[in-house]
Amino acid sequence: MPTSPITPEAVVAALRQVEEPDLKQDLVTLNMVQDIRIDGLAVSFTVVLTTPACPLKELIQNACITAIRHLVHPEAEVTVNLTARVNRSAERPGLPGVQHLVAVASGKGGVGKSTVSVNLAVALAQTGARVGLLDADIYGPSIPIMLGQEDAQPLAETVGERTLMHPIERYGIYLMSIGFLVSRDQAIVWRGPMASNAFKQLVTDTQWPDLDYLIVDLPPGTGDIHITLSQQFPLTGALIVTTPQAVALSDARKALAMFLAPAINVPVLGVVENMAYFTPPELPDNRYYLFGQGGGTALATEFQVPLLGQIPIVEELREGADRGEPAARVPTSIAGEAFARLARSVAQQISIRNSGRVTPQQVAPSA
Ligand code: ADP
């Protein structure tokens, strides 16, 4: 058998020089390199990314090729295969197949929390991730309408002594909503423990498939459902949706402070500023800050969390929601691009937190 001028040891040594840009450590130390194969000058290996939505995959791929050519052999023919494994940071009792449970919250209603939840879920699914969406807005479940599923009936299956429901699959995401199970009039009168119990059942009695992300659209404000979710389920983190107006920001501040309060202590992954500006389709470079400018940035800075995205006011978002076809399905549209960027930022924050490099904030700022 002809011997190759390239050895696996040399390949590993070269890949030790390639840093994962977010985690600031090399690929070998992070255990991201697998399956090295060498045949003459042909070298192939797999890099296991922390998320399929990794915004830096091309950068990592190119850095690997450069390192092998510089440090191992100038004529090496390098093939870098990319796969993703969304790391599980802790045991997940109650939700065994779910890697990351992410809450979407807002201070008040009408800021676009459900719109953000739906379009973020769709944008994450478009990166190749397996995504579930749980509509927990028991006082106004609107997600079935936004996905054109208001009349859907989840299938129920008896497993042992339990009756489990199958989520509805739509646009590549798995959906469950309190709206499938009770009428709006029924839900609206729920208070306190009744609402919490209904929510708990909704989470645990759904037969979720294996998921990378389960996005939970919470009711607006800070109530029993938030506390139940934070204390009884293993939340990876929360996103806070706000519009730039002062009144929305002041309510968003309360929601943010609640997640960070010691009794709750859920990491806030960042702020999403919705309706950040208006861009007329015929003048795509013009931005009109109808509700003021810089509010989301100020809130994020105040709490030392990232501003994860700014979503413009675009008709296609409202029309899409009313038609049951989320605008993020078209990744080249203005809304689609904004949500693709948001999905990358969210996935990146989760990867960074997952690696344990960011300690969750422990101190609640004064309200
Ligand atoms: P919330 O869940 O916070 O109550 P919704 O997501 O239901 O808010 O949004 C309220 C209304 O605003 C809906 O009609 C929705 O289509 C619209 N909307 C939300 N975000 C945008 C946006 N960025 N551009 C245009 N319309 C939007």
List the helices and strands and how they pair.
Elements: H1 8-15, E1 19-20, E2 25-26, E3 33-39, E4 42-49, H2 57-71, E5 77-84, E6 98-106, H3 113-126, E7 131-135, H4 143-146, E8 156-159, E9 162-165, E10 168-170, E11 173-177, H5 184-188, H6 192-204, E12 211-217, H7 224-232, E13 235-242, H8 246-260, E14 268-278, H9 295-303, E15 307-313, H10 315-323, H11 334-354
Parallel strand pairs: 4-5, 6-12, 6-13, 7-11, 7-12, 13-14, 14-15
Antiparallel strand pairs: 1-2, 3-4, 8-9, 10-11
Bound molecules: adenosine-5'-diphosphate (ADP).
Describe this structure in words.
The model is unreliable at 88-92 and 357-367 (pLDDT under 50). Helix 3 (113-126) packs across helix 11 (334-354), helix 6 crosses helix 7 and helix 8 packs parallel to helix 9. It contains 11 helices and 15 strands. The chain is α/β, with parallel strands linked by helices and 367 residues long. Strands 10-11-7-12-6-13-14-15 form an 8-stranded mixed beta sheet. A 3-stranded mixed beta sheet has the order 3-4-5, with helices on one face. The chain starts with 7 loop residues before the first helix and ends in a 13-residue tail after the last helix. Bound molecules: adenosine-5'-diphosphate. Adenosine-5'-diphosphate is lined by residues 106, 109-115, 142, 274-275, 311, 313-314, 317-318, 321. Adenosine-5'-diphosphate (ADP) binds at residues 106, 109-115, 142, 274-275, 311, 313-314, 317-318, 321.
Nearest-angstrom radius of gyration? 22 Å
The shape is globular
> Strand sequence of the main sheet, in spatial order?
10-11-7-12-6-13-14-15
- Output the number of helix runs: 11
Order of helices and strands: HEEEEHEEHEHEEEEHHEHEHEHEHH
Give the N-terminus to C-terminus distance in angstroms: 72 Å
Mean pLDDT reading:
87
Taking the sheet with the most strands, its summary is: 8 strands, mixed
Percent strand equals 15-25%
